[in-house]
Amino acid sequence: MLSQRLPQDLAPNPWAHRLEQRRARGEPLLDLISSDPTHAGLVDAAGALAALADPRAARHEPEACGLRSARQVVAASFSVPDAATSPEDVVLTASTSEAYAHLFRLLADPGETVLAPAPSYPLLEPLAALEGVRLESYRLRFEGRWRLDLDHLRAAVDRARSPRAVVVVQPNHPTGSCLSASEVDALEELCQQRGLALIADEVFGEFPRPGICAPLPTMLGSRRVPTFVLGGLSKSCGLPQLKLAWILLAGPEAARRRARAGLEWIADAFLSVSSPVQHALPGLLAGRGAFQARLRERLESNLAALAAASSGGDVELLPADGGWSAVLRLPALHTSEEWALRLLERDVVAYPGDLFDFEDDAWLVVSLLAEPAALAEGAARLVTAVREELVHA
Ligand SMILES: Cc1ncc(COP(=O)(O)O)c(C=O)c1O
Fold first, then answer.
1. 95 lines ligand 1 (CB under 6 A)
2. Is the CB of 203 under 6 A from ligand 1?
3. Strand partners for 197
4. How high is the mean pLDDT of the chain?
5. pLDDT-derived band of residue 83, with 50, 70 and 90 as boundaries?
6. How many helices (H) and strands (E) would you count in the chain?
7. Which of 86, 111, 116, 338 could form a disulfide bond with 167, CB atoms 3.0-4.6 angstroms apart?
8. What confidence tier does 208 reach under pLDDT thresholds 50, 70, 90?
9. Which atom of ligand 1 is nearest to the CA of 95?
10. With contact defined as beta carbons under 8 Å apart, do 367 and 32 qualify?
11. CA of 97 to the centre of ligand 1 (A)
């Protein structure tokens, strides 16, 4: 009855199953994976809801790519100094997930391929599958910093059936890594040679790691290939429930014009962005500094707790450029999932790395938005668990 676009097995993995059981019983757990800013006490939700009551929204004025006033404010907020984005190069969507769906529809026919990094955001695979598009991974490898394995990417492009686009996530979720300037250059050259578009997910682009002063790199600006840069309210303002995101177009003028016309046609079939949130957008974006400052404080205190817990050397806290997650490398005594299950026995919830397609070794991922006392206690229990296992090894 169901299409092949859905997974044939909808059962959760053993860790997710165990977590579901424990939550269903209402057992108290130290939650180190909660990453919804509206649950973390960081958002002025009342202010955001009040902004939705703009009387102009009483009248429906559908515009497929979004109201010009809303596109204008996105263009002004996210332009880079040397190449301003025009409001014509902004397309609004209801979420970044919807932006991915529109782009896969725009760029790929069913059975064609999009390449995406691994480890990375686990939703890319189902989003591609839902559009009938194949997703091939290319590897990022940790060698003191996360590096693009360019040979692996080239081989993946060669192997792929009709490759159409490469996704980059900057900073990447969950590694928090960005490509170096030379990696971007090599990637762009490959895309140009092979006629591939670039999709750059920059939803965490405004969240550098504490201590990093320079702005994080962006794919906006003058590009040699058709480029689509994604962002949205769910991260920039911590308001995922308002359902507004954007695609910014960069790259050669003629390709941009064609892409814009195609996206307009796709978006017109859905008209999914609500009028109230579009009218509220200028005020929401103008006020995002206060949320981002509160979030930065949370990142700082949670990173300090993780650094202190990992100072003994049994657990390694990986360096990162930005984002809301931290990656921990554990001794390879167990798989990532086994470690996550062992932690769950100690009432600590951390993601096993295989959910994000880490290869080899043992990795856990935690949210830096977690409640600070829970994170500190959870990290202490993790270190104790690792020490006990090392003694028995
Ligand atoms: C890399 C990345 N892109 C996109 C999203 C989702 O954004 P949205 O809520 O706009 O769909 C997330 C959510 O965690 C993410 O980690």
1. yes
2. yes
3. 165
4. 96
5. confident
6. 13, 14
7. 116
8. very high
9. 10
10. yes
11. 7
Percent of the chain with pLDDT over 70: 100
Distance CA 309, CA 36 (A): 24
Q: Tell whether the torsion through CA atoms of 50, 55, 60 and 61 is positive or negative.
A: negative
Q: Which amino acid is at 343?
A: L
Is there an atom of ligand 1 within 6 Å of 223 CB?
no
Among 130, 175, 203, the mutation site with the greatest number of ligand 1 atoms within 8 A of its Cβ is 203
Residue 370, both tokens:
């977690």
> Is the CB of 172 within 6 Å of ligand 1?
no
- pLDDT tens for residues 123-166? 999 999 999 999 999 999 999 999 999 999 999 999 999 999 99
Using a 6 Å cutoff on CB, does residue 240 contact ligand 1?
yes
Query: Please, what's the b/e burial string for 179-203 (b: 16 or more CB within 10 A of its CB; e: otherwise)?
Result: beeebbebbbebbeeeebbbbbbbb
Is this model's pTM higher than 0.85 or not? yes
pLDDT at 81: 82
- Taking 80 as the threshold, does the pLDDT of residue 210 lie above it? yes
**Residue 119: cis peptide before it, omega within 30 degrees of 0:** yes
Block residue for tokens 């609500």: 274
Whole-number Å distance, alpha carbon 309 to ligand 1 midpoint, is 28
Lowest pLDDT segment from 44-48, 107-111, 190-194, 374-378: 44-48
DSSP classification of residue 83: B
